Amino acid sequence: MYLSNIGGGFMIEQQQKLVLSPYMEIYELVIPKDNLLRQIKELVDFSFIYDELLANYCLDNGRNAVPPIRMFKYLLLKSIYDLSDVDVVERSKYDMSFKYFLDMAPEDEVINPSSLTKFRKLRLKDMNLLDMLIAKTVQLALEKGIIKSKSIIVDATHTKSRYNQKTPRQVLQEQSKNLRRSIYEIDETMKEKFPDKNTEDSLEKELKYCKQLIDVVKGNEEICSYPKVQEKLNLLEESVTDDMEHLETSKDEDAKTGHKTADTSFFGYKTHIAMTEERIITAATITSGEKTDGKELPKLVQKSKAAGIQIESVIGDMAYSEKKNIEAAKECGYELIAKLNPVITQGNRRKEDEFEFNKDAGMYQCKAGHLAIHKYFDKRKKDKKNKNPRMVYFFDIEKCKCCPYRDGCYKEGAKKKTYTETIICDSHSEQVKFQETEHFKEKMRERYKIEAKNSELKHRHGYGVASSSGLICMEMQGAMTIFAVNLKRIIKLMNEK
Questions:
Q1: 3 state SS of 216
Q2: How many folded domains does the chain comprise?
Q3: What are the start-end ranges of the E strands in 232-323?
Q4: Please, is 159 exposed, middle or buried when counting C-beta atoms within 10 Å of its C-beta (0-12, 13-18, 19+)?
Q5: What backbone phi and psi angles, to 5 degrees, belong to 364?
Q6: Which of 66, 61, 77 is nearest to 16 (CA)?
Q7: 445: in domain
Q8: Domain range spanning residue 406?
Q9: Could you tell me if residue 347 is left (phi over 0), alpha (psi between -120 and 50 degrees) or otherwise beta?
Q10: Which of 3-7, 136-140, 272-276, 390-394 has the lowest mean pLDDT?
Q11: Mean per-residue pLDDT for 13-35?
Q12: What's the pLDDT tens digit per position in 365-411?
């Protein structure tokens, strides 16, 4: 099936071949032709995973590794069905569609869930998984003639940190509480068998308590047989055993506070997405939560083009209509379908004094990520030179006093800190006229599609909360989730032909 010039590679290569078993015909009987996993298996040649990962395997010593394609497919199943490591392995024991998809014989044993952690950390660590997997699906969609439009729609979606500003001890407390509550609904007498709760502010002792609790629960087979108990037990056990290195820190250090509106915030990450009008995601970048949307547009355009997409129009909300993006659109020969926010230009300000507009909050934010606390509309006379109306943004002076970026921004002894923006400037006049055309308005009607896509990522595939800690892990999660979502969309469009 695969070619290799390395002796050890041949050993792994052999593991990719279809396993011979007298029971293989069972799959033909129990898995219908329209089964999603069957369709994905028939659609995608996963050999590219073997080729990409071969360098990360030790080929000349040790016992045979689990085939890399199979390990990758386990992670894909996690994303498709929003399952934990433990639960995806457990379901693979009895779900024939899972075993079929994993290229296993019906009687084959499944892996240990801990193997998935090792696979992520050791085999995927140096790969640009996000761009690679998106490019593969875009290539597939182009080959199947699915992508016909020459527009991309851009937006960002929020993902909360796994710990969401909670200490590891608080996370463990919450998960152990949920486990106990699910058990009490079945048998309240179990309370007498549980260890005494930890009352000290000590992560070490909280871990000890959780381990004792897990041992007691796992010692009761009847209680463990209930799915709602097993689910909570798996989550707690995974936090204790599978993510210990992150539990040693006070929070997810890569996650940052971002703003959904002026009054609401989140702690985590942003995934900036570009997709076609056919709802195939063509590019993505993942940042900490405080980053603004507009700055990621050039990367999304470049990545989409690199994946093979022809771009005549870029559709987005007002966050993308900043001056640099308007100029870049002209230079690169595509239309920017984004309504102009009258307070986006940064004029001739010094580089160190640049602030960025946060469209979710409707406020400017400084380099440190602090939002303006209120704003004031200054009606200056338009008949005087340089006296166009302006918006004045006020910042919390107490935060400015201790800000690491205060040099050149905050004047010692100042009683207030403001940032002003001219409402209209000449560089936007063409965009103002353009957004009044019927063509602009018609293309803008396509923007709702990406909001629906963001909802799908969160509500069907668990993308609302990070499955692990750190930006690298978030990128892995994003890669697998988008890969799964794109494959589902391709199959749906193919079936509609």
A1: helix
A2: 4
A3: 256-259, 265-276, 281-288, 313-315
A4: buried
A5: -80, 155
A6: 66
A7: yes
A8: 343-423
A9: left
A10: 3-7
A11: 75
A12: 888 888 999 888 877 665 555 456 678 899 999 888 888 888 878 88
**Between residues 254 and 160, the one the model is more confident about:** 160
Clarify whether residues 222 and 266 are in a common domain: no
CA atoms within 13 A on the CB side of 144: 22
Name the phi and psi angles at 137, rounded to 5. Answer: -70, -40
Does one domain contain both 191 and 277?
no
Q: Is the pLDDT of residue 198 over 50?
A: yes
* Cβ atoms of 341 and 473 closer than 8 Å: no
Same domain, 373 and 267: no
C-beta of residue 421 within 8 angstroms of C-beta of residue 372: no
With b for 16 or more beta-carbon neighbours within 10 A and e for fewer, the 377-390 pattern comes to eeeeeeeeeeeeeb
Global pTM?
Answer: 0.68
For residues 369 and 333, state if they share a domain: no
- Phi and psi angles of residue 236, each rounded to the nearest 5 degrees, phi first: -65, -45
Please identify which residue in the block is written with the tokens 């056990």.
Answer: 237
The 10s digit of each residue's pLDDT in 103-160 is 999 999 999 998 888 888 777 776 788 999 999 999 999 999 999 999 999 999 998 8
- Round to whole Å and give the CA distance between 419 and 355: 8
342 three-state secondary structure: coil
Write the pLDDT tens digit of every residue in 418-470. 887 766 655 567 888 888 899 999 999 999 999 999 999 999 998 988 887 77
Per-residue b or e along 280-306, where b marks 16 or more CB atoms closer than 10 Å to that residue's CB: bbbbbbbbbbbbbbbbbbeebbebbbe
